[in-house]
Write the structure tokens for this entry.
Amino acid sequence: MHQDVVDIVKNIEKVYDSNTSFQILKDFERVLDELDMYVYKNWADGELAAGPEIERHWVTCKFFWPLERMPDPMGGKRLLDYDCKVSYEKTYLVKPRKIREPSDIRPGTKKGKLDRQPIWIVTIRMPKSLIIDIFTGYQEQRDMDLEPATQEINAPEQDQTADNAAEQPAGDAAEQPAGDAASAEGVI
């Protein structure tokens, strides 16, 4: 299978036209960022080729790199630890040649000849549950950064008022054995 520049442009237009696709793509990228994928060589240089394709439990995106700048396979291996499916494919990208001389023109047209540029296509199939988990953690961190003073820090809830707390020892006295009841009545 080969990629065509026109297909890539149409895919990008589709992503920008759909608010859902754009949001899913941002969440997909957030997962890659949180898993430190961009630490691995050439992972930051990938470009979207196709996707996001949204299924019931999976989101799939395809990215491409020039052949000589293959992304480090250790990055893909890291994704496997998080139940992602990663595949690499060697293919080519069909691009029109820049017209610099008459031999660069396709016969019978005014358009440039089509050249094949070898590329790597990396397909990443990511579980939606991973995207949701990372997004939830991101949202909690963002909320904490925006308003740290208004957030509760796992404090146990206290349903007692001062009046209820004062009455509690008397309630405990009722649970004492009968012989101790007389001494407990003096305690308020």
Summary: Strands lie at 3-4, 47-54, 58-66, 85-96, 114-127. Residues 3-100+111-136 form a domain with the Alpha-Beta Plaits fold (CATH 3.30.70). The radius of gyration is 31 Å. The first strand starts at residue 3 and ends at 4.
